[in-house]
């Protein structure tokens, strides 16, 4: 198989600073499109993976990035979904087995086939080559795993929708956030600020639960009806038994039992953040109110397109800080310090 070299930023080894390099991209297959990447969001998952914090073996050098927005630059001979010049995005995976029950149901993120859900980076594709992500100038991807970005969403602010947007949209849709439902969003970061915007647009009553009131004005601007500091014990007393749905967007070791106490009977706490260590749940925190503790992983291609169209219709986009590629390592440190409002996006023309 022949390849084309493109510029990228990669972590040469676990925990090593990212540096400029070149990586191979495969030649176009019949159903492939070549994307001229314009913008790539920085997700906390990128940092976890580049620093090997989730314990899995990595494919280094590793190019992170699964919040990709760009323009179709070329198409394979059998491509029917896209044409040169189309605005497209790629999210957290670039392939799946396509044959298992979950793939056939359109929830490819839960692929159970032999190939599995092929991550946009740090995975191995069906060609046997490691996948490399969006901190690069170009990407080749099967047309069936690309998404159309509505014209009403700026490309730079659209990039984070491909992970942060769908990560919160999927559980909000699945647990039917909408009019008459009380939804709490834990954490107002990259995921949380999208959760507030989307839950509000769905018609739910939205409360932000954050460590402090530092971002309260932002939370209310995004559509929150209420904002409470979790560092204040009175918050948990005042809000006991309040919510139908809580989405936890933070990757930290929280007292889940305290948050479960905020659910109404039959309420659900959905875990979205992925901390390094196991979480602890007391059985009676669930049993006492027939409460559920659940998890959710991104979304399938169909639902991700649904999310993009929803955001287009409601003028929803991420609040971003656009950076040049030489600031990626600085941005990583600022993400860890919660010093970003609310998503870093790389201008890939600077790679």
TrEMBL record:
Pfam families per UniProt: ADH_N, ADH_zinc_N
Xref: Gene3D superfamilies: Medium-chain alcohol dehydrogenases, catalytic domain, NAD(P)-binding Rossmann-like Domain
Ranges for domain Enoyl reductase (ER): 16-346
InterPro entries per the UniProt record, alphabetical: ADH-like_C, ADH-like_N, ADH_Zn_CS, CAD-like, ER, GroES-like_sf, NAD(P)-bd_dom_sf
GO molecular function, one term: zinc ion binding
Needed co-factor(s): Zn(2+)
TM regions (residue ranges): none
Keyword terms, alphabetized: Metal-binding, Oxidoreductase, Zinc
Catalytic activity from the UniProt record: a primary alcohol + NADP(+) = an aldehyde + NADPH + H(+)
Enzyme Commission code: 1.1.1.2
PANTHER family the record matches: ALDEHYDE REDUCTASE
Membership in a protein family: Belongs to the zinc-containing alcohol dehydrogenase family.
The name this protein goes by in its record: alcohol dehydrogenase (NADP(+))
The organism of origin for this protein: Streptomyces benahoarensis
């Amino acid at each position: 198989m022949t390849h084309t070299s493109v510029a990228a930023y990669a972590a040469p080894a676990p925990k090593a600073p990212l540096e400029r390099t070149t990586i191979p991209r495969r030649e176009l297959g019949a159903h492939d499109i070549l994307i001229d990447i314009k913008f790539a969001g920085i997700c906390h998952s990128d940092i976890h993976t580049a620093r090997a914090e989730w314990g899995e073996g990595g494919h280094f050098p590793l190019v992170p990035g699964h919040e990709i927005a760009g323009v179709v630059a070329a198409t394979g001979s059998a491509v029917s979904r896209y044409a040169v010049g189309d605005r497209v995005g790629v999210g957290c995976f670039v392939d799946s087995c396509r044959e298992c029950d979950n793939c056939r149901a359109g929830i490819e993120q839960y692929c159970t086939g032999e190939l599995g859900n092929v991550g946009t980076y740090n995975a191995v594709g069906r060609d046997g080559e490691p996948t490399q992500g969006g901190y690069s100038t170009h990407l080749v991807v099967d047309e069936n795993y690309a998404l159309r970005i509505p014209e009403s969403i700026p490309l730079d602010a659209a990039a984070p929708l491909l992970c942060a947007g769908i990560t919160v949209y999927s559980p909000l849709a699945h647990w039917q956030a909408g009019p008459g439902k009380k939804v709490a969003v834990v954490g107002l970061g990259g995921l949380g600020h999208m959760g507030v915007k989307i839950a509000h647009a769905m018609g739910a009553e939205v409360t932000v639960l954050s460590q402090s009131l530092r971002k309260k004005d932002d939370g209310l601007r995004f559509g929150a009806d209420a904002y409470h500091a979790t560092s204040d014990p009175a918050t948990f007393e005042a809000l006991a038994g309040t919510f139908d749905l809580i989405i936890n967007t933070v990757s930290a070791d929280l007292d889940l039992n305290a948050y479960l106490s905020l659910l109404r009977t039959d309420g659900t706490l959905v875990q979205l953040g992925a901390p390094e260590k196991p979480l602890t749940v007391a059985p009676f925190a669930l049993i006492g109110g027939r409460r559920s503790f659940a998890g959710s992983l991104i979304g399938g291609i169909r639902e991700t397109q649904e999310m993009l169209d929803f955001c287009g219709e409601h003028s929803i986009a991420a609040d971003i800080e656009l950076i040049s590629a030489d600031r990626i390592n600085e941005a990583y440190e600022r993400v860890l310090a919660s010093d970003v409002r609310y998503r870093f996006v790389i201008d890939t023309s600077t790679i």
